[in-house]
Structure formats: C-alpha cells, structure tokens
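hey can u check if this looks right to u? its 247 residues, i copy pasted from the old doc so theres a chance i mangled smth
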Amino acid sequence: MRNYGLIGKDISYSFSKNYFSIKFNDENIKDATYQNFDIAAITNFKDRVLSTKGLAGLNVTIPYKETIIPYLDSLDKKAKQIGAVNTIKLTKKGKLKGYNTDIYGFKKSLKPHLKKHHQKALILGTGGASKAIAYVLNKLKIEFHFVSRQASKNVSYTYDLLTQDIINDHQIIINCSPVGTFPNVDQAPILPYDGISSKHILFDLIYNPSQTLFLKQGKQQGATTINGYDMLVFQAEKAWRIWNKNK
C-alpha cells in the first residue's frame, strides 16, 4: 500500500484528503491511501510522519512550507529558487525531495484572465505561498509589491498605508493570507475597496468558502474574481504526476 498525506496545522478542513480520496475511488486506484498529518510543530515531522509505513509522497501546507526544507535531502530547482515547498517525493533510495506545485497551479488559474492592462500586482501576505506567487508574476513580467501587517525589507506597503490610488494602480490583487478562511468568513484583508474597478482581478488562494468576503467586495466593484479551487486541483494533479514519475 502506498501512503500519501498532507502535513500542516489545524487541517481538518483540508482540500487534499477529500480530493485524493475521491480520485482514488473514481480512478479505481486500490493500492493508495491519503491522510492528514496534523502536527503541532515541524519538529514532530520525523516521529509523526516519516515513521508511516509505505510513505510515498506528501503535500505541505500552512505553516510549514518553508520550515520543512531543512528536513529534506534535496530540492527541485524551482523550489530552491522560491524557498518554499508544498510537495515531497520519497525517491527509490528513500530520500526526500522537495518541489513546489503552487507555481504551476497559480499560473494555470491566472493566465486565462490576463489582459494587456494587467501590469502591476499586490501580493497580500508574505508566507510560503506568496513566494510561489511572486515567482510566477516575475516570469509573466508583471511588477508586484508585497503587502503585510508589519513593515520589513521585502514589504512595500503595510495595510494602513494603502490608498485608493495604490489599489487603482495595481490591477491584480492576490490574497495569500489566511484571512477569510472558514470559519472566519466575515473577515477580509483591510483594503480601500473603493479603488477596485472592473479592470481588476482579485485572486484569493482560499477555496473555503468559495466566495470570500475579499472576493465579494471585489465583485461589488465589478472586478474579475478567482478563488483557490482550480489552483488546488491543478497543483494536486501535478503532485500526483511527480510522485508517480519513474516510481
């Protein structure tokens, strides 16, 4: 039996377990299982996760996409450039190799919506997922700025410094923060939403709920809104291909 799973914290809501369970059933894959590894700290990784019999591959989510790296034997080139991992393959020799499929999922989800005027983006949040988003925007030659609650070297704006003009000037806004995730559905990043227009794309990496307050407020202003569901499907399938390539 090949065992796969998701490493994270407070992940009972997980997309991945449900997705892969349905996939295994629909595709008559009888020699694979998928489970959640809900660990309180990354230091539990070896004892709680690596001891699993038949372990073949893992997904990684908040808050361990960066802190997992020291536990891996090697990184794929893109994961190394980004500094964040969301997929781990156990090689034939039992080594752990890290990949980042957030890149693939985000690019596939965003690209069909892009128009010529989409030249500048705001990335809300600075966690592991935001690094993959920045990587994709860079490849697409879209200028981007990080927004966070606290000022730091990589942060262009704190939320309290955002104005309608800044929002209007950045016609792609991507929420990489957990703000608005179920059950906290009445929360949204604090933005001057009046600066959003029909020329904007609002992309929320959250998929539960499917319409976050962030997306609802964008829609009220006429913006194109995209939730994280398709991105998760794309990256899950990419992870499956990685795990099963030359297995």
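The chain has a mean pLDDT of 95.
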